[in-house]
Structures are given as C-alpha cells and as structure tokens.
Amino acid sequence: MKEWEHQANGFREYVKRIVASPSRSFFVVCLSFIGGVVLAAFLNRPIFEIPFWIFANLFLFAALIFPSRTGKMILWILFAFLIGWLRFGQTFPPSGIPNLLELSGRQTVIKGKIQGEVVVRTNNQEVTLVNIQTPDEPLFGKLLVRIPRYPTVWTGDTLAFRCRIQVPESKPGFRYDRFLNSRGILATCSYPQELDIRPAKNFSFSRFLLQGKQTMLDTLALVLPEPHAGFVSGLLFGGSQTLSEDLRGDFSRVGVSHVTAASGYNVAIFSQLLLLWLMRSSLGRKRALPVAAGFVVIYVFLAGATAAVVRAGIMALLAMLGTGWGRTPSMRNILALTAVVMLLLNPRLLFDDVGFQLSFAATIGLVLLASRFESLFRFVPETFGVRTSLAATFAATTLSTPVLLWNFGTFSFIAPIVNLLILPWIPYLMLFGSFAIGVGFLSSSLGSIVALPAIGLSSIVLHVVHWFGLLPFASSQIPFAQVFAITSAGGITFFLVWLSHRPRAQDIDV
C-alpha cells in the first residue's frame, strides 16, 4: 500500500512539473494531437463530424476560462486529441458526393488536370489527375494514370480519355492502396484509349520549377554515364526509375533503398555536414546557420518543390537547427510542432507514407543522437568531416530501423555494415554531382571532367552494394517483423530517455 502511495505521489509530482512548465505542456499537447491521429488510423473508419466539433469547441472554451492550471492542461490535451481524431476522419471521401470509387471496374470517359510531378519511367509516364469529370458529373478524388512514354506531358496539362477505373489493392509487403490514399488517390487507370492531351495555356510556377528540374536531369545525363547518372539523380531528386531492376534489387537486399528516395534521410545528412563545414570556416556559428538554410531552400526550389522534396527540406532545416542550437527543450518542441503541422495538412502520412516516417525518424536521430555518437567515434579521423558524417549516418540509421522493419518485414543483417560503408560518402557524392550539373550547364565537355570525382564515388558505392547484394544471407524475411519493430522502437525510446538524463560530461568520457 505504501509503495502504491509512493508511486502515486511521484506521478502527481511529475504532472505538476509538466503543468508548471509551458515548454513541457506544449510538448504534451502536441503528443496528444498525434495520439488522436494514431487512434483514428487504428480504427480507420469515417466519422460523423458534428459531435467532434461540438466537444472540441466545448473543451477549447473551457480551457480558456478554467481557473486551475491542471484543469486547463487536461482540457487542452482533450481538445488536441479530438482535433487529431477529427482531422484523420476528414480524409475519407465525403458521404453524399460522387467519387471515383463508385466507378470501380467500369469503363468511362474521364477528363482531368495533371497535378504535381510527372514520373517518367522506361516505358510509360505516371500522372496524377485532379478536377476529375465524367460526361455526367464531377467526381471527388484523384486518379493515377499510366500513359505511354511519348508524347511528353507536364503538370497543368489537361487529359481526356476512355479508361477502365481500378481500385488499388495491397501488394505483398506493401500497402499500395494506403500509400496512394495518403496522397488522395482513390483509383488508377492504365494505358487509356482515345487519349487527348491539351497543353496548359497559363503560366504555372510549379510547372516552371519542374521543367527546370528536368533540365538539370538532362544535364546530369550528359555529364555522367549510366548507371551513375540515374543513381546521382536519385540521391539529389529522389527516384530509382532509371536504375536497372537488378541494381534496385541489390539496394533493397542490402537495406539501403532509402538513399535513392527524396526523403529527409540523405538531404538532412548532407545539409548537416554542410552546416558543420561552414561553422568551421570563417563564417562562424551565427552566420553559418542562415547560409546553410539558404542552400536548403534553394535546393527545394531547384528540385521542383514537390511534396516529398519540401518535407525533405523541412527535415533538413530541423536537423540543422538541432546542430546549431544544441539539444534544448526548444528543439524538442520544434520537432513536435513540425509533426503536428504536417499531420494537420495530411494525417495519413503518419502510417501510410514510408518516406515521411523515414525522414522524421532520421531527423530525430540527427537532432538527438548525432553529437552523442560523434564522441564515440573519436578513433575516426576528422579529415574531410568523415567522423561527423559517420556519426550522423549511425544516428539516422538507428532511429530508422524500426520503420524499415514495420513497413517491409525484412531485415538485412548486413545493412548496418553497408550503411556505415556507403552513407558517409553520400553527402560528398551529392556535392560533386551538384557541382557537375552547375558546370555542365556551361559546357557538357567541362562538366564531364568535373564529374569524374562523382563517377569515382558512385562506382565505389554501387560496387559495394552489388558485392554485398550477392551474399545469400543479405536479406531475410523476419517472422513477426512488426513485433520486432515495436520492441526495437521501445528499446530506442528507453535509450533516448536514459540518454536525456545522462550528463553531457559523462558522455564525453565514454
């Protein structure tokens, strides 16, 4: 009985500390919002919004007038939780409005406008259509369409065609339907008939950016031979469509597919290394942070400012803030607020977008663990920032492992080795690749010469991936992989809590 009372008193003291601290209170409210999204995603069913709005407004009003700080805190937590639940419920097709799902399996005439980036593959183009219309009525939802490789289409173009509408289904090891749903895509259509392309007439800033990105990809293809051009383009802009199927399989088997995705994983590591270079230069800490942030913003626009690239840029900025400011409660709250804002815009990212999960996990690792791990790698030389890059890589990989286990159900036993062998060199490969593109604009011949370091590093990385990919035990299907993912996530969380209470001085003496 006394032990129970002691634990109850300890819990009350902990609650008092949270209530007394605006920083901790804000963090808990953010977690409550995320908790609402988690519960709604677990239930995964439409909701009747009116009761949610009524209770949410009641909690908000009560929180504003309630005299007790503890009472206010509880009401704010309830309000945030309901808003998270409500926001996820709003992602389902609204009832009473015709949507694409109603046309499943039917052949019909469709008209729509291309939104976002056109994904160019070897044999086709993938486009996402919005403002869908049939001869009878407009339809809610986006449509993913695969059309022939030529003629080339661009964002903003209008397509009209006849096609059979298909509802996406899950694939083994990949919830393809939920992945598309996280982007608002309800149905797909492959190789439509009677395709009519109507080019956009008005100026579009997104179209301008994406055309600029394509120009850079064309320049990269001029100064780098394959497969190096495809690999470097994946590092800089995301995507592995131009890599051979065998090479993509090697990347998957050794657990490094993430490096060819436009996620915060490699962009954050690159930007963090760039920031540390600038901080050690004559610029100093105060001026290095805005200069490095400026480079990230420029990258986002040059890469087309697609949703994935914008998220990668945000994660990179967060990682740089963590390095520039150090591990402070403010950084913890900035991470939490960023998650809340992103989930407000699209709550399905949390469980249905692996790129978002990897980006956020890697960013948390860079912010919370990179500086700690760097002290453990004192035996690694600082030349060219190898130690910093290795520590950042190890930190990002540690936090990303549960995400990979949960989503893909496989574990590459050699992934830690391969990651540590290749990831420290990825920032330099991105830097050399970017430099080659810049020079290639002026002269393709000169660009080919400048691209030699990028070709050399790319050859090393691709050979390492291929050699390890040949090993028969490179990758294994893990039974109960999601259980292992939860267990590893719990272990990492416990480690982070323990680390947060460990004095920095002791950390240096390891």
TrEMBL record:
This is ComEC/Rec2-related protein. Residues 235-502 form the ComEC/Rec2-related protein domain. It comes from Candidatus Uhrbacteria bacterium GW2011_GWC2_41_11. Keywords: Cell membrane, Membrane, Transmembrane, Transmembrane helix. The keyword Transmembrane applies. It is a multi-pass membrane protein. One of its GO terms (cellular component) is plasma membrane. Coiled coil: none annotated. Its main location: membrane. The chain crosses the membrane at residues 25-43, 50-67, 73-89, 256-279, 291-321, 356-377, 389-408, 420-442, 449-468, 480-499.
